[in-house]
């Protein structure tokens, strides 16, 4: 179902009107229109493109999924592609919501391939900053970008908490190595996906803030600067989290190596202790007589030697923390 809004002189005057009425509203020089299309067909979007004079390449990008976040400028409008994200905390997988937008002089058209993007949260954001509605399309585009960037921030924060939980798993007394590896791989994949949608947003917001664009006027410039700062922070946070996941994986391998060395040290210590009675009792299997063979004192001497030497080795290794 299409969502629509009409602003006149910075005031919301109509909502959820048919898209066919948008052309009549745009004849009013004081009107600003928002049109939202969820899963439109090529014919529907082509008809809207004829009314708003949208470039065919921009329309093609809006219909094809998995576009890179970008901002392209055409003669009559700008085309924006971006992704909102959220983290599935159970699986550690990042879920993306693709969004395309056309920014004309007095209209913002958003195109979504599905209903995964939260449009109600977007309209609520616009309502909270209704005092800026007089800035027209710049006000609408700011709310859209702010909503997208906030989803990036929420995802980064959730990933940070997941990585902290992963650290606790690594240093647990009895860690589940397979679970740690699975979570680390899932988080690393999510960070790679997040990086692909966050880093290009710097170019998008920075391009909109250029003085030669008519979208952002002087009164909206500080708000776009705030969004740009959030984009930079999300980008830097994403990069640091990628390094943290790599460090955690290296730490896990080091801990596994240390545990293996400790086990080998203990096994070697016990092998040295066992070698003493093995060497002494081995004399019983020799065909050559030795002192004390076939004598009762020889048995007791060998037994005492086994006990004393084995006990001495055990005490020595224990004192040196080898056992």
List keywords for this structure.
323 residues, alpha+beta, Beta Polymerase, domain 2, transport, CorA_TM1_TM2, CorA_cytoplasmic_dom, membrane, cell membrane
Describe this structure in words.
- It is a single chain.
- The protein is an alpha+beta fold.
- It has 2 domains: 3-255, Beta Polymerase, domain 2 (2-Layer Sandwich); 269-319.
- Helix content is 57%, strand content 16%.
- It has 9 helices and 7 strands, in the order E-E-H-E-H-H-E-E-E-E-H-H-H-H-H-H.
- It has helices at 22-26, 42-52, 56-63, 119-128, 137-170, 177-198, 201-208, 221-281, 296-319, and strands at 3-8, 11-15, 31-38, 70-73, 78-88, 93-103, 107-112.
- It has a 7-stranded mixed sheet, with helices on both faces.
- Strand 4 and strand 5 form a beta hairpin.
- The chain is rod-shaped, with a radius of gyration of 35 Å.
- The N and C termini lie far apart (71 Å).
- The model has no long low-confidence stretch (mean pLDDT 85).
């Amino acid at each position: 179902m299409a969502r629509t809004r009409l602003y006149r002189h910075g005031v919301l005057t109509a909502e959820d009107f048919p898209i066919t009425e948008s052309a009549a509203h745009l004849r009013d020089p004081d009107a600003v229109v928002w049109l939202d299309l969820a899963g439109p067909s090529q014919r529907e979007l082509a008809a809207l493109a004829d009314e708003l004079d949208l470039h065919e390449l921009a329309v093609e990008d809006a219909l094809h999924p998995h576009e890179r976040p970008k901002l392209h400028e055409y003669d009559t409008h700008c085309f924006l592609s971006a992704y909102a994200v959220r983290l599935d905390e159970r699986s550690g997988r990042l879920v993306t919501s693709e969004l395309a937008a056309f920014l004309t002089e007095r209209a913002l058209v958003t195109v979504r391939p599905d209903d995964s993007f939260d449009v109600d949260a977007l309209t609520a954001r616009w309502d909270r900053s209704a005092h800026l509605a007089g800035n027209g399309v710049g006000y609408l585009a700011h709310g859209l970008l702010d909503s997208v960037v906030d989803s990036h921030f929420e995802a980064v924060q959730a990933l940070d908490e997941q990585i902290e939980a992963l650290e606790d798993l690594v240093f647990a007394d009895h860690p589940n190595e397979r679970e740690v590896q699975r979570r680390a791989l899932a988080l690393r994949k999510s960070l790679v996906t997040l990086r692909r949608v966050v880093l290009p947003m710097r170019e998008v917001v920075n391009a909109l803030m250029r003085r030669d664009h008519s979208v952002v006027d002087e009164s909206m410039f500080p708000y776009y600067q705030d969004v740009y700062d959030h984009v930079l922070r999300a980008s830097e946070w994403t990069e640091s989290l990628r390094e943290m996941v790599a460090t955690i994986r290296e730490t896990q391998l080091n801990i596994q190596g240390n545990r293996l060395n400790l086990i080998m040290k203990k096994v070697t210590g016990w092998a040295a202790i066992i070698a003493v009675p093995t060497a002494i009792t081995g004399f019983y299997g020799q065909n050559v007589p030795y002192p004390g063979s076939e004598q009762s004192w020889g048995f007791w001497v060998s037994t005492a030697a086994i006990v004393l030497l084995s006990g001495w080795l055990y005490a020595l290794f224990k004192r040196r923390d080898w056992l």
